[in-house]
Design the sequence.
């Protein structure tokens, strides 16, 4: 009873539990909201930061156009697919029979209908939506095809088969084929969805007796209409095949051959007509209800595809073409030759017969003095370690493994140079120096360029530097040396700050003061998006996975974030329609360091032109051994133009695109698509024009085609007996093509030498002799006039050598050099001290009425501090081979003591170095005939002492850098400079010359030798 009288506790029982349940129920929506926010931030960290990047760079139009086109195509693709599939499923369901036939087949389907019924509405929404998403994503990827179709251009040249302007093939046909293919996919999937739904709900049956109809009237109409639409699309596809066949590939030549024109094209038209007829029979079936006629039509279509589309062309090929193939195919081979030469820009090649001599005669080079004096002695692929040892300065700077070739006006004359930018290299820092603050805000940029003359060397075979040191000194004048944007830049850096916040390490000093710091002037210069507000900080912290961006005091209202800093990546992003050359090279222009990038427009839709896989055509020994030089991207093309020259400012990252080939129809289309992103050719200043050159990858593709398409006679082309091949690089193991080489030379019958890109040809075939059959050079100098290309720029000249094989090719010459007794003796002497012998590029030059081969030879220590120094030069002419310490000596030895030219404008190896401040001119010869008397022993002792002090100074300097002690580093550099000066003085006394006062190695090393090679 007392229990009954106890008051009820209001907090007990079910009512008390309801508030707790409500609190638990609010957790799920909260988590959903938080999850949505996280997803949104993750998306914006990729999307909005891209918007900021393009906006800062001034190419927001490109992003808006691309994203806008993609978005529209995604919506269209999604709607077309989703609506088509969804409507067919809904119609099939709504038109289902009220009572399914009582058959065992339908009885077994009852369980599936019952299982799917609770999810039917969801399935009819989700399934079309999923297919729509896939379709939209696929369609959006073809935004470029659609844009080119919308902005198609008139080319002015007609195809040889139908007489249609080539613009139809380049722009319109790919767009129409894309639409037809997409609609076929939509129709097929809609038909599958209709079949499945009709079958599941009884509108279509497979088994049972033949007395009852197998489809309901609604199912018959639906399936017949879908089939009719599919047949019409198939007919359109057959019809378009008649045009696409002009770009087909074949074993002997590409494009439509005799059988294609006389059998395949007519068969495609016949099959298109049959497909239209079958479509009509399906429409009749929808009205009259008889499936027999369309089934017969489909059977007829299959038989016709086999007989007309397969057997008939095979019969024509076997019995009409093959017995008379050379004559039958001549017309179509001629079409292929003409189209290929036009599509690759090789239709205006100047071909000359060159009756090359193989006997060296005195004074043979007297008419080729300019070419001989410009022969490169530095191999840009070999001397990178020399640049690093002599000019890297600190471990956090570096040079690429392959340097670049350019030319500069020095004292009024063009000088071939090897040039490289001193890039930032964070991997050179010690582990104790690596942290977010140092990596992102302190070590932010490289410093200056280093350039060397291409045709001479300095003391002991070192490069003869024209521009060197920190601060940079030399003949290139004053320029902004800071390199914030380069191929080797870190992933991102944050620069800028208030007045007095100079925490960026600018450069080390040599006066014991440690280092010079700087602050990027973000108030005056925009180099990257701002990270001065909390929202941008959050997005970039998420983008780069660095919470320090949010919390670091060095990220402030003045800060800018620099990323996507590789010049190639920057151009690729702002010009997504370009295929970019595999080499990016620096130049000093207008007081700034700029990176120059060549861009190509390509197509695979040029009628009759030969298809080329671009990466295969541009692979050579250089791309395989270098990390900085790449082959073209893997794509197939049969049309290419160097349509754009791009520059990227190394200081602020500004990208400028110049329309280099305004006659290219593809570029004209992209100019309409992105009307503000390209500058006209007239905007190129003469100072920049002087550093633009004919691009290597385009030349590689052209030489690949010219190996066959130098043959213009169809019958000779058919036999293939005069096809050539690019020789393998004799310095590289395996079958790897020799790269082309930049050099200044005068081609036979030309008045003057010009900066050119060159290559050689040998007979085609694995069993063919390695003899010279062709030589090709393109004028690579764009001139130095504002907005105007040089008249000869891009002119390709080809020499055809005697067919008797009397002129040795690179392989034979390499063998002759290797087996020559004098060369072997020299190599034995050179390698006796444990040094490695490095044979550089084997250059071929058409001079002296023959073919001259020149190969520099470098010596490099096996262990310790190793870098190559030029020690010998090998020269070959015909079967004659000579080796000497100088090019001039080797030439004289080959040409019976007198080549007719003097080729050593600078100091010989082991002599004095040109002063970089004088433009690289050689100093006067030291006095000769001085009596050494008893000074030899003292000079040797002084030399040994100086070398020992230099070794100790180098070790102390490296230890100081490892500890970050720049004051000690400066002291060690001073000691090193003094030791080198003493060593040179002692060496000069031993050689009977005067003492040399070198430029300190920490600021400007002696003027280096440059190469004209690639």
Sequence:
């Amino acid at each position: 009873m007392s229990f009954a009288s106890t008051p009820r506790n209001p907090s007990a029982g079910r009512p008390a539990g309801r508030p707790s349940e409500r609190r638990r129920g609010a957790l799920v929506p909260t988590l959903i909201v938080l999850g949505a926010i996280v997803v949104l931030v993750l998306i914006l960290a990729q999307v909005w930061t891209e918007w900021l990047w393009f906006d800062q760079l001034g190419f927001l139009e490109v992003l808006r156009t691309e994203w806008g086109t993609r978005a529209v195509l995604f919506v269209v693709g999604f709607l077309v697919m989703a609506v088509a599939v969804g409507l067919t499923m809904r119609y099939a369901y709504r038109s289902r029979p009220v009572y399914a036939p009582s058959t065992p087949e339908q009885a077994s389907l009852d369980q599936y209908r019952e299982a799917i019924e609770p999810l039917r509405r969801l399935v009819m929404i989700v399934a079309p939506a999923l297919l729509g998403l896939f379709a939209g994503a696929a369609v959006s990827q073809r935004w470029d095809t659609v844009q080119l179709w919308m902005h198609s251009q008139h080319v002015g040249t007609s195809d040889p088969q139908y007489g249609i302007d080539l613009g139809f093939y380049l722009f319109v046909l790919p767009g129409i084929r894309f639409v037809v293919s997409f609609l076929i996919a939509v129709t097929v999937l809609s038909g599958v969805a209709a079949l499945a739904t009709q079958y599941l709900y009884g509108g279509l049956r497979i088994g049972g007796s033949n007395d009852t109809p197998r489809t309901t009237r609604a199912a018959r109409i639906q399936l017949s209409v879908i089939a009719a639409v599919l047949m019409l699309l198939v007919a359109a596809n057959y019809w378009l095949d008649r045009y696409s066949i002009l770009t087909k590939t074949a074993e002997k030549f590409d494009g439509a051959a005799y059988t294609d024109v006389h059998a395949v094209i007519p068969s495609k038209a016949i099959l298109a007509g049959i497909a239209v007829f079958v479509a009509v029979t399906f429409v009749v079936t929808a009205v009259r209800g008889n499936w027999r006629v369309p089934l017969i039509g489909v059977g007829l279509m299959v038989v016709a595809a086999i007989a007309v589309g397969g057997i008939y062309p095979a019969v024509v090929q076997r019995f009409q073409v093959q017995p008379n193939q050379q004559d039958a195919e001549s017309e179509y081979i001629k079409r292929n030759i003409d189209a290929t030469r036009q599509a690759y820009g090789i239709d205006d090649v100047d071909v000359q017969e060159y009756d090359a001599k193989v006997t060296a005669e005195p004074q043979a080079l007297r008419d080729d003095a300019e070419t001989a004096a410009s022969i490169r002695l530095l191999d840009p692929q070999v001397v990178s370690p020399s640049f690093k040892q002599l000019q890297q300065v600190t471990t956090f700077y570096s040079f690429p493994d392959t340097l670049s070739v350019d030319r500069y006006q020095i004292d009024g004359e063009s000088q071939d140079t090897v040039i490289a930018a001193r890039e930032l290299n964070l991997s050179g820092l010690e582990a104790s120096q690596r942290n977010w603050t140092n990596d992102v805000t302190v070590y932010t940029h490289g410093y200056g360029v280093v350039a060397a003359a291409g045709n001479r060397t300095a003391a002991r075979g070192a490069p003869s530097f024209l521009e060197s040191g920190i601060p940079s000194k030399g003949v290139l004048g004053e320029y902004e040396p800071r390199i914030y944007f380069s191929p080797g830049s870190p992933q991102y850096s944050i620069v800028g700050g208030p007045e007095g916040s100079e925490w960026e390490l600018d450069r080390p000093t040599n006066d014991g003061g440690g280092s010079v710091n700087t602050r990027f002037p973000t108030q005056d210069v925009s180099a990257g998006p701002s990270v001065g507000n909390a929202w941008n900080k959050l997005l970039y912290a998420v983008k780069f996975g660095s919470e320090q961006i949010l919390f670091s005091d060095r990220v402030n209202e003045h800060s800018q974030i620099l990323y996507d800093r590789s010049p190639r990546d920057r151009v690729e992003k702002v010009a997504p329609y370009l295929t970019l050359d595999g080499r990016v090279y620096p130049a000093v222009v207008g007081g700034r360091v700029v990176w120059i990038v060549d861009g190509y427009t390509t197509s695979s839709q040029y009628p009759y032109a030969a298809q080329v896989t671009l990466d295969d055509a541009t692979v050579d020994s250089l791309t395989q051994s270098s990390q900085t030089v790449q082959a073209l991207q893997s794509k197939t093309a049969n049309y290419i133009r160097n349509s754009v020259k791009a520059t990227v400012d190394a200081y602020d990252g500004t990208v400028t695109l110049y329309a280099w080939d305004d006659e290219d129809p593809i570029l004209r289309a992209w100019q309409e698509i992105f009307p503000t992103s390209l500058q006209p050719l007239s905007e190129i200043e003469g100072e920049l024009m002087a550093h633009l050159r004919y691009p290597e990858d385009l030349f590689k593709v052209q030489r690949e085609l010219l190996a066959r398409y130098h043959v213009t006679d169809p019958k000779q082309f058919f036999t293939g007996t005069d096809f050539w091949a690019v020789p393998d690089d004799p310095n590289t193991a395996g079958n790897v093509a020799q790269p082309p080489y930049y050099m200044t030379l005068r081609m036979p019958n030309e008045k003057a030498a010009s900066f050119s890109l060159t290559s050689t040809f040998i007979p085609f075939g694995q069993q063919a002799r390695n003899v010279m059959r062709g030589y090709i050079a393109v004028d690579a100098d764009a001139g130095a006039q504002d907005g105007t290309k040089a008249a000869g720029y891009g002119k390709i000249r080809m020499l055809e050598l005697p067919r008797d094989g009397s002129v040795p090719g690179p392989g034979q010459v390499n063998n002759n050099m290797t087996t020559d007794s004098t060369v072997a003796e020299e190599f034995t002497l050179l390698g006796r001290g444990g040094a490695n012998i490095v044979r550089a590029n084997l250059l071929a030059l058409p001079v002296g009425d023959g073919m001259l081969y020149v190969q520099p030879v470098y010596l490099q220590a096996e262990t310790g501090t190793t870098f190559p120094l030029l020690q010998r030069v090998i020269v070959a002419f015909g079967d004659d081979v000579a080796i000497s310490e100088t090019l001039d000596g080797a030439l004289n030895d080959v040409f019976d003591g007198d080549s007719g030219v003097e080729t050593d404008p600078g100091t010989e190896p082991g002599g004095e170095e040109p002063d970089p401040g004088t433009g690289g001119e050689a100093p006067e010869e030291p006095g000769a005939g001085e009596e050494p008397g008893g000074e030899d022993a003292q000079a040797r002792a002084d030399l040994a002492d100086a070398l020992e002090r230099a070794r100790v100074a180098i070790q102390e300097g490296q230890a100081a850098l490892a500890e970050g002690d720049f004051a000690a580093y400066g002291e060690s550099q001073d000691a090193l400079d003094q030791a080198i000066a003493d060593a040179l003085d002692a060496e000069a006394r031993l050689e009977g010359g005067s003492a040399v006062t070198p430029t300190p190695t920490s600021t400007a090393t002696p003027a280096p030798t440059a190469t004209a090679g690639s």
